[in-house]
Specification:
heterodimer; A: 220 residues; alpha+beta; 3-stranded antiparallel sheet; two-stranded antiparallel ribbon; B: 186 residues; 10 strands; globular
Chain lengths: 220, 186
């Protein structure tokens, strides 16, 4: 399927395509060829696992002496596209970015009964950036029937830096209090999905098709 | 052969000895951890321990525990501790003194700053191989992210993103930093 085919205008709840009743239970199957499952877009994703090295490095070459200067380094970035499954270990931080031409649609399955979870069965999101609280307050105003659920969402939306004292944050990071305040994202109303102007320029190896294209250009 | 393993297994270890510290910063202090890799009997108990010593005004990097709760017992000195969950206010923000105990739930972020007399504690963690993820410092989650992600996520300049990533070269125990603001703006 070409990228141009991926036009998901609206999503709808799907009924299972097949249902098999057995003696002691039921199995339901969904149609994997449905457009909603096909058009998932593509993206890149970074998972920060404690103790893992920053193996993706970039260097800048100075024009004068030809010497190389260290630019940035970070942990591994992985590409994914429709049909891929991404498994994230419990408790690690991650981010993702849509680098495709179509909306990126992903379904998350949270395993709260995993071996590592010693808290209760309520899924909790701990944001490292963003401040989705305000966005959810607006939702709360628009309807009262989901009040309890919305309140829970509102409580679970804040950036964890928000609760720390700004002076301790500044000292811990060795930055100014102004920068530490930006970490808290208090006046940031963009929510937890933000637009990146001019695309996200990160160090990463090319995708297979990109590499093939580059090799064709370089060919004799 | 199990009874032989049980009968001969080591039951005791010392985490107070400074020479056995896992992380040491002469300006900040030291951390010694004990898990089932060092003391295998702990795998039966599903527990591990951490001994921390922070010198005057030093900071332990803000971090969260990935797979364990932590029970902190203060053995000497005093320090300010903040514990933050997934909502705006800190769930704990106060001074801890010798003899006091504080529980830090799994995934909640915590930062410790020693007072004028320093701060010493022992923490019991409810996993025999407890892991934590620092938010600042050389092993931090912020350092593991691309600069460009920080620039866009926090709406900061490239220079600020670089400061966030690289200003703290220490691992998890930070010495007091009097001139941090001047350095950041330089």
């Amino acid at each position: 399927r070409g990228q141009s085919e991926c036009r998901v205008q609206s999503l709808s709840a799907l009924e299972p395509a097949r249902r098999i009743e057995s003696e002691a239970g039921v199995t339901e199957f969904w149609d994997e060829s449905n457009e909603q499952f096909q058009c998932a877009g593509r993206g890149i994703q970074g998972t920060m696992i404690p103790g893992c090295p920053e193996t993706f490095q970039s260097f800048q070459q100075s024009q004068e002496g030809g010497s190389t200067r260290f630019n940035d380094h970070h942990q591994k970035i992985q590409s994914y596209r429709q049909g891929d499954i991404i498994a994230l270990p419990a408790g690690v931080a991650h981010w993702c970015y849509n680098d495709g031409e179509t909306p990126l649609v992903a379904v998350s399955v949270l395993d709260t009964s995993n071996y590592a979870n010693q808290l209760d069965q309520n899924p909790r999101k701990f944001y490292l950036a963003g401040n989705p609280r305000q966005q959810q307050q607006q939702q709360q105003e628009s309807g009262s029937s989901y009040h309890h659920q919305q309140t829970q969402q509102q409580r679970s939306g804040n950036n964890i830096f928000n609760g720390f004292d700004v002076n301790i944050l500044a000292e811990a990071f060795g930055v100014s209090t102004e920068t530490a305040r930006k970490l808290q994202s208090e006046n940031d109303n963009r929510g937890n999905i933000v637009h990146v102007k001019n695309g996200l320029q990160v160090i990463r190896p090319p995708r297979l098709e990109e590499e093939e294209r580059q090799q064709e250009v370089r060919g004799n | 052969g199990l009874e032989e393993t049980i009968c001969t297994t080591r039951l005791r270890d010392n985490i107070a000895d400074p020479s056995r510290a896992d992380m040491y910063n002469p300006k900040g202090g030291r951390i010694t951890s004990l898990n089932s890799q060092k003391l295998p009997i702990l795998s039966y108990l599903q527990l591990s321990a951490e001994r921390g010593v922070l010198y005057r005004n030093a900071i332990m990097a803000p971090h969260w525990n990935l797979n364990a709760h932590s029970v902190i017992y203060v053995t000497r000195g005093n320090g300010r501790i903040q514990v933050v969950g997934n909502y705006k206010q800190a769930v704990f923000d106060g001074e801890l003194h010798q003899g006091q105990l504080l529980i830090v739930p799994q995934n909640f972020a915590v930062v410790k700053q020693a007072g004028n007399d320093g701060f010493e504690w022992v923490a019991f963690k409810t996993n025999d191989n407890a892991m934590s993820s620092p938010l600042a410092g050389r092993f931090s989650v912020i350092r593991g992210m691309p600069e460009e992600v920080l620039v866009n996520a926090y709406r900061i300049s490239r220079a600020d993103a670089r400061n966030l990533k690289y200003n703290r070269e220490e691992m998890v125990v930070f010495g007091p930093q009097s001139g941090s603001q001047e350095r950041a703006s330089a």
